[in-house]
Design goal:
Helix content is about 40%, strand content about 15%. It has helices spanning about 15-30, 40-50, 65-75, 100-120, 140, 150-165, 185-195, 220-230; strands at about 10, 30-35, 55-60, 85, 130-135, 175-180, 240-245. About 45% of the residues are buried. It is globular and about 50 Å long. It has a seven-stranded parallel beta sheet, sandwiched between helices. With about 250 residues, it is of the alpha/beta class.
């Protein structure tokens, strides 16, 4: 028997990286998993990796019409959502003085607006006792030069986990923040490639060496997501679980 048998889960931004690893792990543990992503080809490939328990819904979490279509489909097909993983996110390199309005709008629309309305629109489908997991980032704790806007959105997500945990406690809906550190993902690789290589110390890089001497793997983050999604974390809410190899603590 799996830890998530008979559960229905949503993982946003699940085409690659951490989101895909979480979707795979949830499906392995018995859940029916809805995956979202903006790019059809990558989403189809992800659903094929997840297997028969995976259901792909193309869409952009920053577009409310896309979210309405997503949740209408989940309601029609499954009737409820036991687990919501608000994972969709992105970041641009932009030090103070070079931040553009376009980059600001892009990052805040997906990371913050997308997270807020994903969870808000999911509420009617959440039974009492459901689990909501918000993906933050160790960048919110490490002050990485050039990632100010991205880090601010991820700090806000951690704050939302506290507030929503309090607001939903009467329904026993648990809300927690999951905070990865440097993890090997396509999105992370793309962001790291944007950093200048000639004027940044190693400690300032988003993938600075961790005390464990390596970057993390998406499956390691997925293992923590499984803990937060299932009954083993039944007394955990409003918390932040760090999966960062000790980077923010040591």
């Amino acid at each position: 028997m799996g830890q998530l048998d008979n559960k229905t889960a949503l993982v946003t931004g699940a085409s690659t990286g951490i989101g895909l690893a979480i979707a795979r792990r949830f499906a392995t543990e018995g859940a029916t998993v809805y995956l979202t992503g903006r790019r059809r080809a990558e989403l189809d490939t992800a659903v094929a990796q997840v297997g028969d328990r995976g259901i792909g819904v193309q869409g952009d979490v920053s577009q409310l019409d896309d979210l309405d279509r997503l949740f209408a489909g989940i309601e029609e097909r499954s009737g409820r959502l036991d687990i919501v993983v608000a994972n969709a996110g992105l970041g641009d390199y932009g030090p103070l003085g070079k931040i553009t309005e376009e980059e600001y709008e892009r990052t805040t629309s997906v990371n913050l607006k997308g997270t807020i309305f994903t969870v808000q629109k999911a509420l009617p489908l959440l039974p009492d006792g459901a689990s909501v997991i918000l993906l933050s980032s160790s960048a919110a704790l490490r002050a990485v030069p050039g990632l100010g806007v991205y880090a601010a959105t991820k700090a806000a997500i951690r704050s939302l986990a506290r507030t929503w945990a309090a607001e939903l406690a009467n329904r026993r809906i648990r809300v927690n923040a999951l905070t990865p550190g440097p993890v090997e993902t396509p999105g992370g690789d793309e962001l790291r490639a944007a950093f200048p290589q000639d004027n940044q110390s190693a400690a300032a890089q988003p993938a600075a060496p961790t005390p464990l001497g390596r970057a993390g793997h998406p499956d390691e983050v997925a293992a923590t997501a499984l803990y937060l999604a299932g009954d083993q974390s039944s007394f955990t809410t409003g918390a932040e679980l760090l999966v960062d190899g000790g980077a923010t603590q040591l």
